[in-house]
Amino acid sequence: MTWFRCAETRPWASMRLFCLPHAGGSAVFYRPWAKEISPAVEVHAVQYPGRADRMGDALVTDAHQLARLIAGAMAPLMDRPAALFGHSMGAVLAYEVARLLQERGSAPVHLFASGTRPPDDRGGDRRVSDLDDDGVVAEMVELGGTDAEALREPELRELVLPYVRNDFALIEDYAHRAGTRLTVPITAIVGDSDAHVSPEQARGWARATDGRFALKVLPGGHFYLADQQSEVIAEVLRTLEVPAG
Question: Which of 1, 40, 79, 231 is 20 to 30 Å from the Cα of 219, by its Cα?
Answer without folding.
Answer: 40
